Amino acid sequence: MGGGRESRSCCFRRAEWVAGAEGGVRPPTPGRALREPRAARSSGPRAQPYVLVGSRGAGSSALLRAGEPRSVPRRPEPWGEMAAGARACPPRVLVCLGVLLARWVAAGFEALVIGEVHENITLRCGNISGPRGPVTWYRNDSEPVFLLSSNSSIPPAEPRFSLANASSLHIKVLRPQDEGNYTCREVLNETRWFRVWLQMARGPYEVEVNISSTGALPNGTLYAAKGSQVDFSCNSSSRPPPMVEWQFQAPDSSTETFGNNLTASCFSLLLMSQNLQGNYTCLATNMRSRRQRKVTTELLVYFPPPSAPQCWAEMSQGSLMLQLTCRWDGGYPDPDFLWTEEPGGVVVGMSKLGVKMLNQSQLSDGKKFKCVGSHIVGPELGASCVVQIRSPSLLSEPMKTCFVGGNVTLTCQVSGAYPLAKILWLRNLTQPEVVIRPNGHYLITQDGQSSTLTIRNCSQVVDEGYYVCRAENPVGVREVDIWLSVKEPLNIGGIVGTIVSLLLLGLAIISGLLLYYSPVFCWKVGNTFRGQDMGDVMVLVDSEEEEEVEEENAAEEEEEEEEEANEGEESPEEIPKHGHIHRVTALVNGNVDWMANGLQALQDNSSEEQSDIIQEEDRPV
Known about the structure:
Elements: H1 38-42, E1 50-54, E2 61-65, H2 97-101, E3 109-116, E4 121-123, E5 135-140, E6 144-149, E7 161-164, E8 168-171, E9 180-188, E10 190-211, E11 215-216, E12 222-225, E13 230-239, E14 243-249, E15 255-257, E16 266-269, E17 278-285, E18 292-302, E19 310-315, E20 322-327, E21 336-342, E22 346-351, E23 355-358, E24 368-374, E25 383-388, E26 393-396, E27 399-403, E28 408-415, E29 422-427, E30 442-447, E31 450-455, E32 465-473, E33 476-487, H3 492-517, H4 519-532, H5 546-570, H6 592-618
């Protein structure tokens, strides 16, 4: 295809026309030839030959120069010889007609006239202006046939023949058998002969176009699938066979021609694309009559969407009706949509836009709806998507507290709702079923399916009570109550003083415990008591075993007193100077090393005391 458009794969089949090799047309050869002297053809003035092309309508004709291609007929062979001075025989004597027609004057003319079947035509007797003499017309077949004469006493051969402009032959309702050679004889001062060759043309009629497309729309428009192969063919009846030319015109572009005037009636387009959509015209031209007939066919190129359909559900504006929407973009033309309930396949509705409105009576929690998209060029089963609707669920804190004059925020979280739920805040006690609107006292914010209500400058009289968070969609409505308690603010100074006092008391207790249970502190205290009274040993023990240790010490002291009393009776001279020696079982919590050090010190002290006692015993009384 020309015009700079991308190359397209076409296969052409050439038609074989009945025509000359170079476009010219060869007339048939007459059956009987009448020879003419060579000198008669060469003497006298000779006018420029012409071609007379007949057109539709009575008495209409057109002149073409004989020098143009396919316009100059081949001269018929002469019909015989005749003396230059021979007289014309009477018209009624047909035997002499051959001699009359053999008279070839120097001013002979030739003409080619194209006539169409069932039309009228006028054959002119030469291309001469001025006064004309008596005229006689003959048909030159195998034998000369008289047709018409300017002599009114001689009737024409057929009523279809008449004389026009005193010299021209007018033929009505041409027939295919009217094709042939015609001769006009004019007698004025001298006899002149003019020959006219009449060629018959017919058609083209009934141009038949065949396009192997994918299908046809109800209005007759053809369409083909993108990427497919489309075959084109064009046929027409004509005499001679017509030249067929295919033309293409895309939307908003100029006409382009296939094959550059080639006589092609068949071609194919491989891998149809979107830019090959448009009008295809088959133009059949009769090369004789130049009559044309064309048939234009619109061909559309369709293709389905490349991706899968998408569907969703949403709440319609201003109502609680459910709006189902299905989209399947990217194809041409737009697909059709069918909504059904699943399972079961109950048809909900069909539409070109893919939108369906449902009221609440048709809805229930967990219900599924299926959208099936179908395209004119496939796929055969179409493509589908499913939507499942859900009622909302709410999550919120049941109680909130606010101090008088402070701010508090109530939060409400919606989950599981499809389509998305609408969240509202209401008062359950003071203003039931009245929606709270944002103002200077209330601030409402929403992020997705989470909504917050902030109450500023809390008042115990106005704000305390139940607040309702409501979530609603076409499937269902859910509500949750939140109790707001408003309290007076506490004495901050008293609270701080109490806290500080408790901290100090705790610090004192911890310090006392550390001092009481610290092993280092016990060792220092033991040394101090040992310096004051060498006879007593002081060891800190756990409070849990204090009573047991005291009982054991008391029992040991009684036994020692009894032994001393007995010893005093037996040996009164031995008087101990030091105090009592106490046996003490010490339990030290958490530090074995310190306990070992304490026992070692006690053992050392006991050894010293025993050595002192022994020394005193060894002294003489």
